[in-house]
Write a structure and sequence with these properties.
69% of the residues lie in helices and 3% in strands. By secondary structure, the protein is an all-alpha fold. The chain has a two-stranded antiparallel sheet. A hairpin with a 2-residue loop joins β1 (58-63) and β2.
Length: 444
Amino acid sequence: MKLYAPWEKRFAKIATPFEHYLHSQTTTGVALAFMTLLALILANSPLVEAYKHFLHIPIELNVGEWKLSHSLHHWINDGLMAIFFFMVGLEIKREILVGELSNIKVAILPILSAIGGMVLPALIYLSINYGEVGASGWGIPMATDIAFAISALILLGNRVSPALVTFLVALAIVDDLGAVLVIALFYTDTIQMLPLMLAGGSFFIMILFNLLGIRAILPYFIMGLFLWFFMLESGVHATIAGVIAALTIPSRPKLTPTSFTNSTRNLLDEYDNYPVATDHTLHEQQKAILLNIKDTIDAVGSPAGRLEHALHLPVSLVIIPIFALANAGITIDFSSIGETFMQHVSLGIIAGLVGGKVLGIFGVAFVAIKLGLAKLPEGSSLSQLFGVAFLGGIGFTMSIFVADLAFVGQETLILQAKVGILSASLFAGIFGYIWLRYIAKSKF
């Protein structure tokens, strides 16, 4: 029987957490593509006014005299996306502690490539927009959309080495960290000190929870809500609260693997001591033992790991696709589309995401390898690395997010930015996939 989604077969076996992570990214890529297409259809159909009106429906939270009111679009970008950034924070922390970024010898290539892939696009954009009204959008072409990029690699199957997939994941994680820093440092207009201090206090309490060994999720969740609200009121973009909160979640398990094995084996032996009832019902003591086994399983995994695993599906299938539906809907005037492409903002983003990413990622990687500072990912070639650099030019989610921050209230510039992002991402994705599938020389 032919599989509808052929890459699913790779996950039919017992998957590692990293494979689950890759699987979630491919799922996100498919959902993102569908919702982006739907948003474009709605924005260019007779339903466009209903689509825009729906996104601007006000949603209020009232407690006595206190009121927090924003449009649905605002709640999606500042509320739901805070959960996405929380996931980003968990991924960054995992990669630094136990992932590819924990070994500097392995991490040096994706780190240098990611820096090159952020700096060059920004400089190219600024060179085109210097002195223009859209100059503040220099952060837009810096980002790589990890979901789309990894989806393309996974679809290539064994044509690319696992090490090359890992390289792209590590690069995208560093890229996400760079995007978070850019948003926090450069896309904040005014700062209210009292809410910012209260946000700092919330963060300190969450760190205290970690130091005290608190592993229950609820206390972190409650303080995380306070942290998000105070960030929202401070003027620093509220989604940054998600990344900051993620850093406080305990990443070390309560039990070591050896302790887990011994404890579980002892509990199972105790469980087997009770005779099997004729109606196959469990003895009360057996039920208690099963609860202890569950607690033991929880103890050998970290709260951060459990949260990351639990959130992957809702973030992949709900939050990011909803963001795409709310933000990718641009009304295209085909009579003037050529003029839109020729605007400084659109040109800067296209040149940054396509040319800048390739020059930054591949160029820096090539120099680092030739100088002996880093090694080529095992089982891959420079030709394949070139193709991956093109996939790094898929900006989308984070690029659209930064565009909305850079051009607040400037709908014309936002339109130009989104046209540039969508066209550049489409070209980079298709070209990168074709290069890796039909042109790139492999070491296999």
